[in-house]
Design brief:
The complex is a heterodimer of chains A (256) and B (216).
Chain A: H1 2-18, E1 23-26, E2 35-39, E3 44-47, H2 49-70, E4 85-87, H3 88-96, H4 108-123, E5 128-134, H5 136-142, E6 148-158, E7 161-166, E8 176-177, H6 178-185, H7 198-204, E9 211-217, H8 223-230, H9 240-250
Parallel strand pairs in A: 4-6
Antiparallel strand pairs in A: 1-2, 2-3, 5-6, 5-9, 6-7, 7-8
Helix pairs in contact in A: 4-9
Chain B: H1 2-16, E1 39-47, E2 58-66, E3 69-77, E4 86-89, H2 109-116, E5 119-122, E6 142-150, H3 151-158, E7 184-188, E8 207-212, E9 214-215
Classes of the chains: A alpha+beta (256), B alpha+beta (216).
Chain lengths: 256, 216
């Protein structure tokens, strides 16, 4: 009976929360310190311990539903993926043709997904995504408002070899090396941890670090999918229906 | 030749007059003035001082021209609900980290002015003339701004004699074209917080987002 009441409460709460951002996870409580709530958009909020408990219950319920919907791969291992390598001139052209008609409230994961999809559709380029994740300690210390950020990334042939460059049209006016992109957000200039499992980060990152960084193929849309990948469920193609709904969410139709 | 030299000298003089009495080197490069024609001009507004507010501010500016009507709009999202001074400048590029000449981690007002040059059009409460908006700029964490002007009226005002050559707002030569291509939109203002003493102009004037306008 109690479970039934909880379910009904959550079910009635869902329409309300459907108009707000979805929760990715709720941080651990420590004494009376505010708890960090991570939204799927990448934003964070600080809430008190009691509210955090309520949100944690709701988040677990929602996560179960989204898991069933999104992860459908049955491959036993991730197929090899060889990113395209482009020249610096091609990189500039690619950057300049990125769809600038994103909506004001668009989320980074949605923009990156549509941008890489559209470039793949137009030119066949196999792009990548650069995900950066921040620790709770860094977020609290700096007042940073996001727990993760993602942008398209391509391998670019430069005079000194192939370099991974991030194409973050909303925040940078040109393709930039990963380190420059990272330093835009990590003001300490410290390097991010790159050898890690997302699921470990998600369960509780090393709080002595500022950030974690993971590169994926262009098909991964949300951080939770990196966690699923570590559990053996891979993204190996674009889901056109998903891209269509993502585009509707993140971009205006027509031209500026 | 003599006229060109005079114009150049005038621009250099105006550019050297910073809001706080100058102090930064004059290095802005003014792009050729492309006259306005019907169509849409746009720029993404990207962070200038990403470490200023624990948030990466962003926005865009669009200018639509149709006949004699100019409609300027700006959107900016940041984390600080303060007044955001916003202007179109004569320079042709935005300040970057390398323009932080004193190395304090911030591109402050004077350092930014050295790059973006003098203001040609304040995007304030009234853009029909440089003065009519009285320097009243939009405020808030999420700014949506739009103002219209008659291009005839606006250019007539720009051709007036500059009555205050000590500010950072400049006029055009009488009869000179006004255009926005390759001009810079710069938006300022973070909430009061502990910035280093080396930051000239303080929080209100700290540049937050910037973009270079192109016709699309």
């Amino acid at each position: 009976m109690k479970n039934c009441m909880v379910f009904l409460t959550l079910a009635f709460a869902l329409p309300v929360f459907a108009n707000t951002e979805q929760i990715h996870s709720v941080g651990e409580s420590s004494g009376d310190e505010p708890v960090i709530v991570r939204y799927t958009s990448g934003r964070v909020a600080l809430v008190d311990k009691n509210k955090a408990e309520k949100l944690r219950t709701l988040q677990a319920f929602r996560y179960e539903r989204s898991t069933l919907k999104s992860f459908t791969s049955f491959l036993t291992e991730e197929p090899p993926y060889t990113p395209s390598v482009i020249s610096m001139g091609e990189a500039t052209n690619l950057f300049n043709r990125m769809n600038r008609n994103y909506t004001r409230k668009s989320e980074c994961s949605d923009r990156a997904h549509v941008w890489t999809h559209d470039e793949f559709t137009q030119s066949g380029l196999l792009g990548q995504k650069a995900f950066i994740f921040f620790t709770d300690a860094y977020i609290k210390r700096t007042g940073f408002k996001w727990w993760f950020h993602v942008a398209p990334m391509y391998d670019v042939q430069t005079g000194s070899g192939v370099q991974k460059m991030v194409f973050d049209y909303m925040y940078k006016n040109r393709p930039v090396p990963v380190s420059e992109w990272k330093n835009m957000m990590v003001h300490s200039g410290r390097e991010c941890v790159t050898e890690f499992n997302f699921n470990d980060y998600d369960a509780g990152a090393d709080q002595s670090q500022d950030c974690y960084m993971k590169f994926t193929n262009m098909y991964y849309h949300f951080p939770a999918e990196i966690g699923a990948k570590e559990n053996g469920t891979y993204r190996t193609s674009f889901d056109e229906g998903e891209v269509s709904s993502t585009r509707a969410r993140a971009f205006n139709s027509g031209s500026l | 030749m003599k006229t060109n030299l005079l114009i150049f000298s005038f621009i250099i003089l105006v550019a050297a007059c910073g809001k706080d009495g100058g102090g930064s080197s004059n290095s802005y490069i003014q792009a050729e003035m492309v006259p306005l024609t019907d169509g849409t001009y746009h720029t993404a507004l990207r962070p200038v001082n990403p470490k200023s507010a624990g948030y990466l501010p962003y926005g865009s500016s669009t200018i639509r021209v149709s006949g004699d009507e100019l409609n300027a709009s700006v959107t900016v999202d940041d984390a600080t609900g303060v007044e955001h001074e916003q202007n179109i400048h004569m320079g042709s590029r935005c300040p970057e980290a390398s323009d932080d000449k004193n190395g304090d981690g911030f591109v402050d007002y004077n350092e930014a002015m050295a790059v973006v040059g003098p203001v040609i059009l304040p995007l304030d409460n009234d853009i029909q003339s440089q003065k009519s908006g009285e320097g009243n700029y939009p405020s808030g964490r999420s700014v949506t701004y739009s103002r219209k002007a008659s291009i005839d009226r606006l250019t007539t005002d720009l051709w007036q004699v500059d009555e205050n050559t000590s500010d950072n707002i400049m006029k055009l030569d009488s009869g000179a074209s006004f255009g926005v291509v390759n001009r810079v939109v710069l938006v300022h203002g973070v909430s009061n917080r502990s910035l280093p003493a080396s930051v000239q102009g303080g929080a209100n004037s700290l540049p937050i987002v910037c973009g270079v306008i192109q016709k699309i």
